[in-house]
Specification:
Shape: elongated
Structural class: alpha/beta
CATH superfamily of the largest domain: CoaB-like
Strand content: 15-25%
CATH architecture of the largest domain: 3-Layer(aba) Sandwich
Distance between the termini: 19 Å
Number of helices: 14
Low-confidence stretches: none
Largest sheet: 8 strands, mixed
Number of strands: 19
Number of domains: 2
CATH class of the largest domain: Alpha Beta
CATH topology of the largest domain: Rossmann fold
Radius of gyration: 27 Å
Mean pLDDT: 89
Length: about 400
């Protein structure tokens, strides 16, 4: 899988006959599982239409700095913050000059000024324009600012001249951009994660649930994504924002969560079951709200066991690795090891939820990672750091075992 998986790429297209090659570049970025947005200068739109680039990228094409719609939300700033890398291909002599001067009078130059992301430029112009001393002076300024220049290539040009100035071929630009990124430890893996609690309805207004906030599962989704994986998150009711570039499905009950997991699971390499699924549900859902009756001081609630989602998946014997969580209040290691064996898991993450400082809804945690071969304790720290250490362990000892 490409190192560009899950990366945000802003492709900027400037005016020139080589603009038609930008369409192929969008396609290559998309097949590398990158997220692509396209910015086009007015000159670029004379050679290739925004509609073409929109169809290929699946995203609205950005064209105007002073668009009322875009700038109501500070569109150029949002674009500058969104991208991991800005690729200008083709880059005309005029745009090269603007970048060197630090101008910000159009959308392209304004985004480049506002962004702290990597900048990669693929020049394309007539060979005489490329050799001109002013162009070379501009080039040196841009290189000093930290930008990477890709090409240009040498050969016959559209005008009939022969020499340097042709835009580097899209596949070679793709390779250059890939080389800028370190391949994540889970690059290309498809990971399904469950998170949060479930709600088991008693009547239309009451339910059984638990204290899970979903923070651990969401933090894991963020870190797994950062390591290059393609992540899908199935979440119970929580008050958390979806991590960037993660597909999310919301469910309420254990039954809904199991149905969604079983619907999706066959496409995945790794299943991390971090959700705190309710063990029990009311045997019967009352159609109407149960009324408080002064004559009846007790209400009898009969419960049935919920299906064990993780065990049901492990019994399918699919070609995937499985990771579970054991939230215990006593006999932490003994209970966790039993779950590891009973559910035939590759890894179980055990934590003591009787300690409120590392239990449900806390920002910190302390866990023990247990496999059939070893045990590793991760001391109390933030859930973000815990997630990093868990994912490192999964990459080293589970996926590559």
């Amino acid at each position: 899988m490409s190192k560009l998986a899950n990366k945000n790429i802003l492709l900027c297209v400037t005016g020139g006959i080589a603009a038609y090659k930008a369409a192929e570049l969008v396609r290559l970025f998309k097949t590398s599982n990158a997220f692509v947005k396209v910015l086009m200068t007015k000159g670029a739109q004379e050679f290739i239409t925004p509609l073409t680039m929109q169809a290929l990228s699946g995203e609205k094409v950005h064209t105007d700095l002073l668009s009322k719609e875009a700038e109501a939300a500070m569109g150029h700033i949002e674009l500058a913050k969104w991208c991991d890398v800005i690729v200008i291909a083709p880059c005309s002599a005029n745009s090269l000059s603007k970048l060197a001067e630090g101008r910000g009078d159009d959308l392209l130059s304004a985004v480049c000024l506002a962004s702290e992301s990597e900048l990669c430029i693929a020049p394309a112009m007539n060979q005489a324009m490329w050799k001109d001393s002013r162009t070379q002076k501009n080039l040196k300024k841009i290189l000093r600012s930290g930008a990477k220049i890709i090409g240009p290539a040498s050969g016959e040009q559209a005008c009939g001249d022969v020499g340097e100035g042709r835009m580097t071929e899209p596949k070679d630009i793709l390779n250059e951009i890939e080389n800028k990124f370190k391949k994540g430890s889970l690059s290309g893996k498809k990971v399904l994660i469950t998170a949060g609690p479930t709600q088991e309805m008693i009547d239309p207004v009451r339910y059984i649930s638990n204290k899970s906030s979903g923070k651990m599962g969401f933090s894991l989704a963020e870190e797994v994504k950062n390591q290059g994986a393609i992540v899908t998150l199935i979440s119970g009711p929580v008050n958390l924002n979806t991590p960037d570039k993660v597909e999310r499905f919301d469910v309420k009950s254990a039954k809904e969560m199991q149905s969604k997991v079983e619907e999706l699971i066959e496409d995945f390499d790794l299943f991390i079951s971090a959700a705190a699924v309710a063990d029990f549900k009311p045997k019967k859902l009352q159609e109407n709200k149960i009324k408080k009756d002064s004559n009846n001081k007790k209400v009898k609630l009969v419960l049935n066991k919920n299906s064990d989602i993780l065990k049901a998946i492990s019994e399918k014997k699919l070609n995937l690795k499985t990771v579970g969580f054991a939230a215990e209040t006593e006999n932490l290691i003994t209970n966790a090891k039993r779950k590891l064996s009973d559910k035939n898991l590759d890894l179980i993450v055990a934590n003591d939820v009787s300690d409120e400082s590392i239990g449900f809804d806390s920002d910190e945690n302390e866990v023990t990672l247990i496999t059939k071969k070893e045990k590793k304790i991760i001391k109390k720290t933030s859930k973000k750091i815990i997630s990093k250490k868990i994912v490192e362990f999964i990459a080293q000892k589970v996926i590559n075992d």
